[in-house]
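Title: Prediction job returns without error message
Component: structure pipeline
Severity: low
Priority: P3
Assignee: unassigned

Description:
Job completed but the reporter wants confirmation the result is attached to the right record. Sequence as submitted:
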Amino acid sequence: MAQLKMYWFPGSPIKEYELPEGYSVSNYKTVADRDAWVEICRNGLVGDGHDGYSGFGSAIAAEEDIDPERDVFFLDYNGEHIGTVTAFVMKENNAGDVHMVAIRDDFRGKGLSKYLTMIALKHLSQFDLHHIQLTTDEWRKAAVTGYINAGFKPVEYDIGMEERWQDVLEERDIDSIEMYYEDGTFYKNIVRKSKAEKVKFGVVGAGRGSDMMRYCEASDNAELIAICDSFEPALDKMKKQFGEDKIKYFTDYDEFLKCDFEAVVLANYANEHTPFAIKAMRAGKHVLSELLPCQNMKEAVELIETIEETGKIYVYGENSCFMPAPKTMRKLYREGVLGKFEYGEGEYMHNCEDGWHFLTRGDENHWRNTMSAFYYCTHSLGPLIHIAGERPVSVTGFEGPFNDRMWRMGAKAGGFAVEMVTLESGALLKSLHGVGPSKNSLWYCVYGSKGRAESAREDDKTKNSTQSMYLNVDKYDGENAGNQAVEYDTDDDLSKRTAEYYHGGSDYYIMYNMVQRIRGNKNADVIDVYEAMDMFLPGLFGYFSALEGGKPMAVPNLRNKEERDKWRNDTRTTDPKNPENEIIPSFSKGNPVIPKENYERLQKMCEDNVPRNVNIKMPRKD
């Protein structure tokens, strides 16, 4: 678990304390002082059983910015060292650091740490610093209270920090405190846990939206207000689960939007997301779009311009980005562990045949039956885009064959698709995905200039696919240290809360980050509309590429208003539901012929509630 971080800003008052009788302050001078430092820190900071001297070597002697004779101080009792603090200037960012604060075991509980804090602040205040910082842990209760009393402020720098500080305030009966970002800019006044307001949500889609509803019911920062679904049996199921006292239920989306909630979760049909999102934002609601952002370029332009006009928050809920392995890859890449981004692969191969009758209900024109093989590209491509943090500039698309599984499912596209994507830096991505492969594969791999990170393979029965990650990196670019792969811990401060949520706990992170963004946290890890288009457009233009025999296609940058004009009337889509659109084939070689009996069979399976993994064979006859 990441430590709490706190800042003290120059100009804040330093609380002066007169040392009790018998106590004094001294500086580090000799090797004997090192031995005393070790004894003070051995139990509290370095740890029982540690020799302590290596602790001094790594914490003090190895730090280039620390001059022990200048920066290491002792609190003495009758001339004997009983406490220590190190206060030094970090030259790289012109900040002070209060480091290795410790009181000897037999002098703890006397309130002496405040004298060490005072010594450190007075020493560092003689320099022209941006701020003075320290790190600590919640379990150091007296220390945390002392730092708050000394004027240190909480820092929002890692996931879950605001909630952890709300618990700290609650425990200490403090109503509110200023919180700052890591760059020293003001975030906001955070309040104790019992006074924190919940973000009110309405959810569209009683099936896929159930995980988002569960988050609202279980969390301290969100509240479920209303549920909307046009399929009444699904809505009835939600009524039984949540009751009808506090939650309102709707089959009409316009009536649903009149409810008093701040944000809408769109977990409805993927071909409806753009019009639903636009209507919600024009009604004053923030939007979490579960999947997908749009169907065609006209919708893409309309969505972006609505977001810019209304100023509402739009978050794209690509959950694969927040599965443990790709989430950890992104963190490591941003920290420089992997070096420069060079290549990435993502796979989302999902044999959907056993549940297709529930998903499509035997409707020949259901969006899942008419979508191209490239349509669902963001599960494989999205995490790579989110890790690299770069815009795609070109794509070449390839479509797999139309196979017997797709024929039995009534799906009119190839069983899978591949996009080869070039990023603006020249780095390459390979995205493989489909709903009609013979076997599943959910896997991600990233190559940097210093090494590789990848998730476990689906067939590794000892691991849980994207829950597990392997890291094989050099210390520096060009070291070539050989194969040093290790399994890397993918847990973070919120991992324990996510165990009961779908998609490897990623649904929890999507909702959590959405709440944090609504609360004003600029550090919230959300996918905005521009990045959502970076994830989706390579699939759309990958299909255009496949239609032209694998011709490379430029990927539009819809951040540029001038470029939008080229595409605002482009309605090409494979979905026949809207007659105003230009309908193109679902399969790049022309739509296959699928008999009506296939759809009738699937409809009957749905009506009969035939469970998954029961396959009624129907031999293909061409």
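Comment from assignee: result matches the submitted record. Residues 202-317 form a domain with the Rossmann fold fold (CATH 3.40.50.720).
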